[in-house]
Amino acid sequence: MAVREIYDLGEIPPLGAVPRYMHASVIRSELYGPPVKSFRLETVEVPPVGRGQVLIMVMAAGINYNGVWAGLGTPADVIAARRRNGDPLDFHIAGSEGSGVVWAVGEGVRGLRVGDHVIVGGVCWDESAADIRMGADPTTSTSQKAWGYELNHGSFAQFTVAAEYQCHRKPDRLTWEEAGCFLAGGSTSYRQLLGWHPHTVQPGDPVLIWGGAGGLGSMAIQITRCFGGRPIAVVSDDAKTDYCLRLGAEGVINRREFDHWGRMPDPADLDAYRAWLGGVRSFGRKIWDVLGDRRSPKIVLEHPGRDTLPTSVYVCDNGGMVVTCAGTSGYNGDLDLRFLWMFQKRLQGSHAANVRQTAAVIDLVAAGRLDPCLSEAYPFADIAEAHQRVYENRHLHGNAAVLVNAPEPGLKSL
Ligand code: NAP
Asked: Which residue range forms the structural domain that includes residue 39?
């Protein structure tokens, strides 16, 4: 089989033919900054496939915050961190989710073959790590790393390498861009809502969801409904209300109607504290209005962090849980401890999802019970602009994807 050195984007090589070079969206540390500055199209070598890994020809990739953080060089300088550990590569390819075709199979891979259509999840670990062997959930392992963030060669390139356990069969009903866009938000919110026994969504439970029209939020609304909960979505713009209602939200609150956001004042500053508490209580009353009864959220799905955590802890029901996976607005998460201990609430960190939780979300999407919420499929050349919109919170609702080798939107196979 004659194999060329490189193929154009959208040009499909013969099945299993691996070229030497590929087109990729590359981040370099000298250009760290906002996405329009940090993402550049380049030609680089196709990465080698290790034991237990597969090479995937990427058809579409999901746009999410990991790309923004990688390009900013903060909260972690991912290139410097890898180089400190002996990696010679001086660039980073982001992209923590995607869909594609298995193009080569490494030693020891049993469950995948060249030509399989897959969705790739964004978290990796060392299956032989001591803590995993002792029974730890792999996402809590000290060996756990985010693919396309802490690990190089994510999905924003013609080819990527992924561990076998990261790959799940692509449901036939999904287009490449639908399949590539929902897993980061879907699996993370699934773990937040169903992974922390006994605080799992139960029929009738009110659940407060920040950023209801965002990547996590749009999936969280649907998952909450699927398990019989009552999702209350928060947004910053009334234009997002109908979208959240269509996904199953019981009601939607516009956070712009309140102004107590940000860090909690010192409780010793009585005037400032009283004013803050007034804002929090009126937000809590708004939740009761939405529910039509004086019930508080059993679970609060957190990710904005600094701006919202003090409110989340206050409005959470007695014995309920605030579960957080991020600090988008800042990493100082203030809370008044009195509300935590007196009312026996749980504050839980949650990160990514294990293989079982990831598979469960894909099954729900495959069965048509969750919509992948694709809002937009960008051409590969617009990858920087797509991330810039996320960075500035002016992206469309739901999840967005970028077409990599898929020549046009709407395709479901090669
Ligand atoms: P997204 O699509 O941009 O949605 C986030 C939503 O949060 C926005 O739509 C916005 O909605 C809301 N928001 C932004 N700033 C806010 C603020 N100051 N106060 C309240 N709400 C605010 O992003 P996403 O994909 O859902 O990701 C959200 C965060 O989760 C990111 O930091 C991401 O890195 C993180 N994440 C973590 C994991 C993990 O495994 N740990 C996985 C996925 C995502 P409104 O403006 O309409 O309120």
From this structure: 21-182+372-403
CA of 309 to the centre of ligand 1 (A): 13
**Tell me, what CATH number does 314's domain have?**
3.40.50.720
Residue 302 CA to ligand 1 centre (angstroms): 9
Query: Could you tell me if 236 and 274 lie in one domain?
Result: yes
* 218 shares its domain with 111: no
Let me know if residue 65 belongs to a domain: yes
Ligand 1 geometric centre to CA of 44 (Å): 31
Domain-embedded: residue 178: yes
Boundary residue ending a domain (349, 364, 384): 349
Residue 196 CA to ligand 1 centre (angstroms): 20
In order, the DSSP letters of 51-85 are TTEEEEEEEEEEE-HHHHHHHHT-S--HHHHHHHT
Of 320, 209, 324, 306, nearest to 262 by C-alpha is: 306
Asked, for residue 318, whether it belongs to a domain, the answer is yes
- Ligand 1 binding site (Cβ under 6 Å of any ligand atom): 64-65, 184-185, 188, 210-211, 213-217, 234-237, 240, 255, 303-304, 307-308, 325-326, 328-329, 351-352, 390, 393
3-class SS of residue 223: helix
Residue nearest ligand 1's atom 12 by CA: 211
pTM of the model: 0.97
For residue 205, tell me if it sits in a domain. yes
- From residue 28, give the alpha-carbon distance in Å to each of 37, 90, 195: 10, 7, 36
User: In terms of domains, do 48 and 171 share one?
Assistant: yes
Question: What DSSP designation does 25 have?
Answer: E
Query: How confident is the prediction along the chain (414 residues), in pLDDT tens digits per residue?
Result: 689 999 999 999 999 999 999 999 999 999 999 999 999 999 999 999 999 999 999 999 999 999 999 999 999 999 999 999 999 999 999 999 999 999 999 999 999 999 999 999 999 999 999 999 999 999 999 999 999 999 999 999 999 999 999 999 999 999 999 999 999 999 999 999 999 999 999 999 999 999 999 999 999 999 999 999 999 999 999 999 999 999 999 999 999 999 999 999 999 999 999 999 999 999 999 999 999 999 999 999 999 999 999 999 999 999 999 999 999 999 999 999 999 999 999 999 999 999 999 999 999 999 999 999 999 999 999 999 999 999 999 999 999 999 999 999 999 999
Tally DSSP H helices, then E strands, for the chain: 13, 18
Residues 123 and 251 in one domain: no
